[in-house]
Amino acid sequence: MTTAAKVAGVLLLVVTATSLAAGLLSPVSYETQFRESPNAPPCRQFPLGTDELGRDRLARLLYGSRVSLLLAPAAAGLSVALSALIGITAGYAGGWVERATMAAADLFVSLPWLFLLLTVRALLPLNVTPWASILITFLLLGVLSWAPGARVIRAGASALKRSEFALLARASGCPKPRLLWKHILPNLRPLMAAQFWIAIPVFILSEANLGMLGLGIAEPLPSWGGLLAELQDPGRVGGNPVLLAPAVLLTVFLSCLQFVFSKEDQ
Amino acid sequence: MVFARRISILFVTLLLAGLGGATLLRLAPGFSADERDLDSRLNAGSHEAFEAVRAGERNLGRFYLLYLSRLARGDLGTSRLFSRPVVELLRERLPLTMGTVLAGFAMAWTAGLALSAVSAMARNQALPFALGGFGSALLCVPSALMAVLFYRMDVPASAGVAAVIFPKVFFYSKRLFRASLAKPHVLTARAKGLGDVRVFIWHAVPPVAEELFSLAGVTLALGLSAAIPLEVILDLPGIGQLAWKAALGRDLSLLVSLTLLIGAFTLTANALADALAHATRGAGSNDDSR
């Protein structure tokens, strides 16, 4: 690992640790309103100022980072589990099961992701509690993004099924479930791990886009997407550059993530 | 034969997608609600007639057949939110989105292919590093945020679409070109004294044309997705903004029709890209690249 990748890795750890320790680092909650100081500029009490409801922007950024950074890996885990289940079933079964599954995967990959996300999100209630909105966002991202991973895992499972060690295991009388569990699945773990790490930045970006469009995690709970929604009125940014803080943090975090993992790939 | 197979797969996929769309509409909350029920001027007979029509639509199979027959006649239903036929809304808004997406698509592919070719052939690593950094930075910015930046810089929305597609084209084609340039037949061509540009165009590009055509279909879908936040933030009356308004207003009839239409468009584009990829396979099959 190069020095630059190490620095990126340390930055990732610092952002993650800071967001996890939001409760300790921030003296106020993300929903506490200082009604006498709405839209306050950065000062000693509020280093990033307050929003129009008088809520501390720094507290909201810390708590929002925690929500986004926990949500994305959880959604990625769900997505990979689903991809593995579908991909291994298709690759191992072969025949029409494989063809039908891959046709469905092609359909999912071809459809514009955000249109699909908006359609399914609109089907679900919009006026839900913040925690329910987290669950909905997390499930939507995880469930709707099974297709690319399933294609990759299907190809891996199909190749492993035809491999010499699988043939030997079958010839030795190894039952199918044992072959899958003890021989195929462990060999697919690196592929699944790669899919997991690829999905995390995708989900962080998707949550940010959904949040900016007002269809992500519900207020008063903050998330990176929700905080970025303040930028919907681009005219406000010129007078208050602090509004860009969540955008800068998101971009730096994703750059570091990409830097660490692209270097690792090499 | 291959093309006919692709068309039939496309047709079946669209039928299945239509079934999915009809199911979503049928299961949506408030599906059987009708504001005419509240109209006290209508007599009991009228209410019974409306109820009889709705009862027929409650059966999913029958509802799907009705939905398909309406689709075949070009009737995509009426938007509850805008109280206007969906076809009319699409006719007004589709040209703007398609123009934006296709312009962005063309910009991204032109820049992506040119810069990836330069990066793949460069002997000095400074330029590939800088271009890679630029592409990586674009990958880290949500398209909604990009729209805000472009609004500040007074840049057209098509540049936003291009910014979303460009990194995918650039990184993927650079990897393909690099692998292609390292093949033995390319080394032989170089050893025989062929110029860099000639080697690239005639020996490095044809073997990877198939993969590039496949990527083209996928990036079109990506561009259409990027149009939603761009049109919302930049207040452009395209179908991206329409989809957002439909989602906020829970106008499922409009949203499902939009998704189906966009899905049909991207699936057709993908089928065309695959057909082109298949046609170019012959060009690359006479070397040892596969």
Written overview of the protein:
The complex is a heterodimer of chains A (266) and B (290). Chain A has 12 helices and no strands. Chain A has helices spanning 3-20, 22-25, 57-93, 95-110, 113-123, 130-144, 146-161, 164-171, 176-212, 224-228, 235-239, 245-265. Chain B is mostly helical and 290 residues long. Chain B has a single domain, classed as MetI-like fold (Orthogonal Bundle), CATH 1.10.3720. Helix content of chain B is 78%, strand content 1%. In chain B, strands 1-2 form a two-stranded antiparallel sheet. Chain B is elongated, with a radius of gyration of 24 Å. Chain B starts with a helix and ends in a 5-residue tail after the last helix. The interface between A and B is large, with 43 and 49 residues.
How does the major sheet of chain B shape up?
2 strands, antiparallel
State the oligomer. Answer: heterodimer
Q: Helix fraction of chain A?
A: over 70%
Order of helices and strands of chain B: HHHEEHHHHHHHHH
Return residue spans of chain B where pLDDT drops below 50 for at least 5 consecutive residues.
285-290
Name the chain pair whose interface involves the most residues. Answer: A-B, 43 and 49 residues
N→C terminal distance of chain B = 23 Å
Using brief descriptors, characterize the structure shown:
heterodimer, A: about 270 residues, mainly alpha, 12 helices, B: about 290 residues, MetI-like fold, about 80% helix, elongated, disordered C terminus
What can be said about this structure in brief?
With 266 residues, chain A is mainly α. Chain A contains twelve helices and no strands.
